[in-house]
Please model this.
Amino acid sequence: MQEAAERDDPVESGRAARVAHRDPYGLLGASRLELRDYWHGLSPVAPKIMYVMLARESDGSFGGTAELSVGEQLRRKESLKVTLPQAVAKRILSTLARAPATPGEYTPWIEHTDDYPDVEIHVEVPAGTITFHSRSQGKDHTPWGLRVSGVEHTVTSPLPARALRLLRRSTAHDRLKSAARELMRRRRS
Model:
């Protein structure tokens, strides 16, 4: 009975419409968040790989593991536990949710050789998996691709890159950069 009253209430209906407009894919209700952050190029520290697997905890935070790998010949690997506080997870997911997308084929922007990023952010929601992905070069990796229910979209906004930077800072990216620097020092000696 109360649900029917809320549906008929224009204030509640308007609030629900605004929330749906800001989060059209239900990302704020995500149960899992995965990052596959891969880079390859002409460098002794290539490839650099960070794979983060997180699941929502009962308090709204996300917890899981990060797998790091740097270099091919002098490979360094590391695995560690990571936690995203609820506020940080919400900020990442709401940033992704605000990214405007246009249905259509994704084509990466590639300007030069020996610099090959490959980034995927998978968000598990009740309706399935939403994937933001990019092989584009440049600071923001724009454009991005967005796969929703098997349909490809293009995102020209830097919002997925902002979410990526926050996700990197909040997990283990500093450890990955540190491992790359250590590998370079070992290579020189």
Summary: Residues 1-7, 9-19 have pLDDT under 50 and may be disordered. The longest strand covers residues 115-125. Residues 119 and 158 are 14 Å apart (CA to CA).
